Amino acid sequence: MSPSFCRLLAPAVLSLLAAACAASGAGAPDPPSASDPAAPSLVVHRGDFEKVVLLTGELEAAEAASLVVPRTPNWQVEIRWLADNGTPVQAGDKVVDLDNSAVSSDLEDKEISLREKLSTLTSRQAALAGETREKEFAVEQARAELAKAEIRAKVPEGIVPRQELEDRKLALDKARAELAKAQADLASKKRSAEADLAVQRIEIRKARREIDAARKAIDRLTLYAPRAGIFLVGEHPWQHRPLQVGDSVWAGVVAGTIPNLSSLEVSAHLPDVDDGAIAPGMPARVILDAYPDETFPAKVESVAPVAQTEGPSSLRRHFKVRVHLDRVEPDRMIPGMSARVEVIAQRRPGVLLAPRAALLEGAGETGSAVLAAGGTASVRLGPCNDLECVVQGGLDEGTRLARRSPAGAPAGGAGEPG
Q1: Domains by residue range for the chain, with CATH
Q2: CB count in 10 Å sphere of residue 194
């Protein structure tokens, strides 16, 4: 074939090829691109509608053994040692060690005071015993004087002068009075001695009780795990951070917990602007940040009736939500794991759905849909989620829609569930 013939043939071949391509293109339209307004994703279709409320939270144990700071004479005590957060422990393992120096010093002072009280009691007992013996001796002397006075007063009349006999009778009465007085003094001394010793014994018993309490307080300042599990460090009461070595804590503060892993649930927060968006009993899906490809079925257990602030300096408020997990896996789930909760506030299976990107704003439950063929169509809308709205009338399944212009606004209004 000569070069000149090829030059003549080439334009004809190219013309035939171009005509063939044009003919084939007329029968089959180009596949729509992602930027094409008539892309297949903007098609009225039938499917399951879900309105989902997203919450954030973390795993939390509904049941846990709390390790509480005990009461001490000073009430305030410093953390000297603390097991790491999340440490596996066995029953009886030491998990918290509180500073006992102040209690130990107080115990030494109490023991010294007790020894002084015991010494004082011994000395006082000896002194009171001596005083009592003196009173007893005085009673015996008075009793002897009375005996002599009785003998002297029994002399018959006529042996001694009458005046002397009267004097002897007066001496007898005086001896009787002296004996009664000595006996009264002895009884009074015994009563006062017993009362004095009883007060000192009470003080000694009190001192011993205080010493026993101090010794028990020292023992209680070391906290041990009551059962096997995972130790979780407690939260600072007002700084809202984990406790750490060196913190001063008061009696009653929870220094740590050992949760029951089979009672794990999700503690989530609902912003106060979404008040009423969810209710107890609604189904939910939980996705743990540690296992993003796995979904755990759940349901809303409770919603707090009153919103609380997130902190003393925060203006944001939220409702605390408890989400019950249908399936708990203690081997993989650990308290404190972050979680995303998808609460299914509404679910309508097999309804007609329109992409929200193709809908324009409307009044009440009405709206407009941008048609791929041009123009708009009035539609009646039901509830909407972030991507789709339920079509209650005005559009047929399979209708192709176009993306609204950037100036358009999404349909919603009263179509949003209240």
Answers
A1: 45-59+260-415 (2.40.30.170), 64-99+221-258 (2.40.50.100), 103-219 (1.20.1460.10)
A2: 11
Structure tokens at 243: 């406790």
* Short-list 382, 385, 406, 410, CA closest to 394: 382
Cα(370)–Cα(361) distance, integer angstroms: 11
By residue count, the chain amounts to 418
pTM over 0.70: no
The pLDDT score that the predictor gives to residue 18 is 41
Q: How many CB atoms neighbour CB 332 within 10 A?
A: 11
Helices 101-153, 162-220: crossing angle, 10 deg rounding: 170
C-alpha 411/C-alpha 387 separation (Å) is 11
| Mean pLDDT for the chain overall | 82
Nearest to 318 by CA among 307, 330, 304: 307
φ, ψ for residue 16, nearest 5 deg: -65, -40
> For residue range 52-89, what is the model confidence (pLDDT) as tens digits?
999 999 999 999 999 999 887 677 889 999 999 888 99
Contact between 285 and 342 under an 8 Å Cβ cutoff? The reply is yes
- The separation between CA 349 and the C-alpha centre of its own chain, rounded to angstroms, equals 40
Backbone angles phi, psi at 63, to 5 degrees: -125, 135
Residue with tokens 């096997």: 228
Strand, helix or coil for residue 312: coil
Dist. CA 326–CA 324, nearest whole Å? 6
